[in-house]
Specification:
Elements: H1 26-36, E1 52-59, E2 62-65, E3 73-75, E4 79-89, E5 92-101, H2 107-123, E6 128-134, H3 140-143, E7 148-152, E8 173-179, E9 188-193, E10 205-209, E11 213-218, H4 224-240, E12 244-249, H5 256-261, E13 292-298, E14 305-312, E15 325-329, E16 335-339, H6 345-365, E17 374-378, H7 384-391
InterPro entries: ADF-H/Gelsolin-like_dom_sf, Gelsolin-like_dom, Gelsolin-like_dom_sf, Villin/Gelsolin
GO biological process, one term: actin polymerization or depolymerization
GO molecular function: actin filament binding
Length: 392
């Protein structure tokens, strides 16, 4: 089946509606740049001129700076833009722009985040790599930015999805604490999950906030690091309110108290909990039956074509041609778009449409393929991750 056939809608996210079509013409670039230079957010705190991290949340179509003391904290009802600038050499910076889409963000928020990501890239003169990040399956590049990442329910005020902070004390809040291998040995993920015993897993630590007390449930297979990091999480929670804390190991009979609080009964087992983690494991290149594939998007023949030009275990930047647009499937690990400096207007305007069609075609073969990270680089501004993907 051809890559543009058999398209299906994603299960949890309509990725097609979470992006915007890009025109890619010289006029369009100028209009976006003129718009970008008028956005106050892009002019604050050395944005794009010094190495560092900047985060903004989308609020009512506006780009609003996220407080630095909340970096690494995200709400599943929101969309965010994250800029990571890093030194390439003494006189050159590299930039990665991520737009992160929460599971329950609105299409308006998601579309604004996608458009503003393009606008920020224009502000940086096309020097950035653009990444789309889905909450359930963030890329390693994104996770590596945060030694501790926290994902909570709620978000900016938007109907039933908004969770007022003062209401948190009136409901059960269950946090799952587990390792973030992308952020090194001490990397941590704190993810709010449904407050039910079915969310428990023998291998992790869980923190249950009942409003008047905080309970810690240590699964029998959790690591010492996860126990220690969960203690830090609890410490931070008790700074905001003074409540009792009780720590229980799964092996203790008293741990049944937490199972009961989460809706269990006498027939509920006390072990064998196997809830899948809320973040899908990163896809790995080189698995059996996978290979790298390089496609060319070109109108050199007078018609726009999308053709496979190379399929195998190794590729090279020598396989790229600056007159066209190329799409790299890194063995199912990520989909990269490389835009040549000499690409035509039609090629520049259609890369996103074609990349989405390709991912949807992959989804017809693998239900979870719609979660594959999607990123775009421009010729002359290739990121380290892209070079690793095509040359490794």
């Amino acid at each position: 089946m051809a890559p543009n056939a058999g398209l299906v809608h994603p299960k949890e996210y309509d990725i097609k509606d979470s992006n915007v079509e890009l025109i890619g013409t010289d006029i369009d670039h100028q209009v976006k740049y003129n718009s970008a230079v008028s956005v106050p957010a892009w002019h604050a705190n050395d944005v794009g001129t010094a190495a560092g991290l900047h985060i903004w949340r989308i609020e009512e179509f506006q780009v609003v700076a996220w407080p630095k003391d909340k970096y690494g904290q995200f709400y599943d009802g929101d969309s965010y833009i994250v800029l990571h600038s890093y030194k390439v050499s003494d006189d050159k910076l590299g930039h990665d722009i991520f737009f992160w889409l929460g599971n329950h963000t609105t299409q308006d928020e998601a579309g604004t985040a996608a458009y503003k990501t393009v606008e920020l890239d224009e502000f940086l003169h096309g020097a950035a790599t653009q990444h789309r990040e889905v909450q359930r399956a963030p890329s390693d590049d994104f996770l590596s930015l945060f030694p501790r990442i926290s994902i909570r329910s709620g978000g900016v005020r938007s109907g039933f999805r908004h969770v007022e902070e003062e209401m948190k004390e009136e409901i059960l809040t269950l946090l799952r604490v587990f390792k973030n291998p992308s952020a090194g040995a001490n990397g941590l993920v704190v993810h709010e999950v449904e407050p039910t015993w079915r969310s428990l897993d023998d291998g992790d630590v869980f923190v249950l906030d009942t409003g008047d007390k905080i309970w810690v449930w240590q699964g029998k297979g959790c690591s010492p690091m996860e126990k220690a990091k969960a203690a830090q999480v609890v410490h931070d929670m008790t700074l905001a309110k003074h409540v009792d804390v009780e720590v229980l190991t799964q092996a203790e009979s008293r741990s049944k108290r937490i199972v009961d609080l989460l809706g269990g009964n006498e027939e509920t087992p006390m072990d064998g909990f196997k809830a899948s983690r809320p973040l899908a494991p990163a896809r790995k290149a080189g698995q059996e039956g996978t290979s790298k594939k390089l496609f060319r998007l070109s109108d050199a023949s007078g018609e726009l074509t999308f053709d496979l030009v190379k399929d195998g275990p190794t590729l090279s930047t020598d396989d790229l041609d600056g007159n066209d647009v190329f799409i790299l499937d890194d063995g199912g690990q990520a989909v990269w778009v490389w835009e040549g400096q000499g690409a035509s207007k039609a090629e520049k305007s259609k890369w996103l449409h074609v990349a989405r069609m390709y991912i949807n075609w992959l989804t017809s073969q693998d239900d979870d393929a719609y979660l594959i990270p999607l990123a775009k680089v421009n010729e002359g501004h290739e990121s380290r991750s892209f070079l690793k993907a095509i040359e490794a």
